[in-house]
Amino acid sequence: MSWLEVVVLGLVQGLTEFLPISSSGHLRIVSGLFFGHDPGAAFTAVTQIGTELAVLVYFAKDIGHLVATWFRGLRDPEVRASQDYRMAWMVIVGSIPIGVLGVLFKDQIETVARNLWLIATTLVVFGVLLGLAERYGRQERPLEQLTMRDGIVLGFAQAMALVPGVSRSGGTITVGLFLGLERAAAVRFSFLLAIPAVFASGLFTLPDVFAGDGPSPVQMTVAVLIAGVVGYAVIAWLLRFVEKNTVYVFVAYRIALGVALMAALAIGAVSAT
Question: Of 18, 37, 66, 165, whose CB has the highest number of CB atoms within 10 Å?
């Protein structure tokens, strides 16, 4: 893997991880179009560690409070009645589906799921679903009204992102809007929910990154750092954006990209595998 590819893919990961447009899909598309090969699911998983470090830094106070509340609640019955204690459990329980399904379908995720025809299709289909969620979701429930049932449902929504093109944030935001959550609440919970799953996935697949002709440890470190710095800026921008704007711009982008990719595949401009 060249240094140019490392830098470009680190930037792509940072720019797209938190937007509902699929970072894994973009990494696969950019690699196929400009570098002629697939960087692999393992590379994607490890670069996501950088963007999740950005989440830890940006939400350090909130995350620290949730973790402290969870530990206190284990021994204090009064704390267990708090929303923060329940929220911590929602993140834990909501992370289970993607962990279990990721292990069960690891081989398929790393092979057939990375076909560009599939990615093009999921970009369009889930773009339409995101648009429907924006249009018909009530968007009246704040984050404080999130229930354990919501956390489980959103956990399965996150698990759909095991297929590139779906988008981790896109899946959880879409389902969150359908559940009646405010747009900003759905976005914030999608950030928190991703932390355990992404770190576990990145650490689990780390040995696979350096197998064969993959990046060197130094290159991988640089890609992670680039993704983290850019991702931090994207978090700050997105949270402000969704407070006052709809997500239709992302819907239009997903559909346009999916259709363009289908056209490129149809004329043989890029290989599906």
Answer: 165
